[in-house]
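User: Phosphomannomutase/phosphoglucomutase, Kineococcus endophyticus:
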Amino acid sequence: MTAPTVNLSSVIKAYDVRGTVPDQLDARVVRAIGAAFAEVVVLPETPAGQGAKAVVGYDMRPSSPELSAAFADGVASRGVDVTVIGLCSTDGLYFASGFLQVPGAMFTASHNPAQYNGIKLCRAGAKPVGQDTGLSAVRELAQSWLDSGEVPDGTGAVGTVDEQDLLKAYAAHLRSLVDLTGGRRLKVVVDAGNGMGGFTAPAVLGDDAGLPALPLDVVPMYFELDGTFPNHEANPLDPANLVDLQRAVPAEGADIGLAFDGDADRCFVIDEKGDPVSPSAVTAMVARREIAKELRAGRQPVVIHNLITSRAVPEIITADGGTPVRTRVGHSFIKQRMAEEGAVFGGEHSAHYYFREFWSADTGMLAAMHVLAALAEQDRPLSELAAEYELYAASGEINSTVDDAAAVTEAVVEAVTATAAAEGETLEVDRLDGVTVFHPASQAQPMWWFNLRASNTEPLLRLNAEGADEATMAVIRDRVLAIVRGESA
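Assistant: Predicted structure for Phosphomannomutase/phosphoglucomutase:
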């Protein structure tokens, strides 16, 4: 009897695969996706006369070993030799793809709850595979096999499946990019949230991979790998998941706290007082270091930032001799512009950080190492160092449920611009991603801006606002929210 058909449109999204196990993702489904990945991505980009190869890694979720093994079988069934690197972070898989120069697949659902799993696919050199770069073709081919019941089963596969441990090589590569040996000794609390940070942090920041010890005293929190996330969700973007770390850093007398998400490709930073350091400040801090390095090498540095980051980011980039390039929100846009501009670094408000020296892929660990180095190179506490980059007051992202996001957005723009015109103020409006309204500083009002973006998947309108100070930000935030939520005309 033919197995029930799964609609892959519900699990293969614009940039990755994500679904619940086993009703949406099981061994049969991911085997078909693996075979399609081999046909669409791996085989076409294999140079003539060379054997086709791919690399597969997975996170700590209970379903990851079985699903990744089925995927590897599917890839091998098309004549591709597969290297399985086992447990790894997402940036660990990107490293493997770049280091081995082969396409790769990472089994993870990032910060999603335990019943989820997923796949992040990339071409050789960690180049992303998205909807317009092969993912839709993978979906269509896998769907055709699932519909016909002719899913490749991996039996009699002509490709090989072997294992290779690349953790030490990954840690050594990161250490080669940031020198942590010359500064003062730091006490660091790391909250891995039971995710892959508990696997990579001891290797990179400690000596678990056999590398020399660094001048770091690491205090571990929730390093036990557990895809059921018993302590808190592995999503540091939600402030509730930072509370434990915020308490631990001052209690331990630590210099800094680091929080990683489930697949450890994002990193959030806490100062010695237990206060968060915004991803915008981290972006500017790392940008300053990368710009200086580029200038020393005689190159003109370009740094990418998305439009939700603080206005301080492009201002600091420019002041330090770099060229800022503003993009839409989303890793595909960042990576595309990184390649187009030859950018040395890119940062997002969501704590994704991209490095040219890391195949232009995102790695939270490398960003964390830059912050550690910047802190260790001077004697001030992190709160004082971060203050150099926290120039303005930001609202954070605020979601509102709306029936018609486009109509509501236009009503906000019309109301705000009409008020400004009546007051003799000039506004700049752009539509790079949603609508951004910018008020440059004038004699009457300080600088402020806001952005409204509609969610692609939910009836939500997302507001981000920033002002020259807390009071200015609060005024524009509350004005916009009142209109969005129908509380004023």
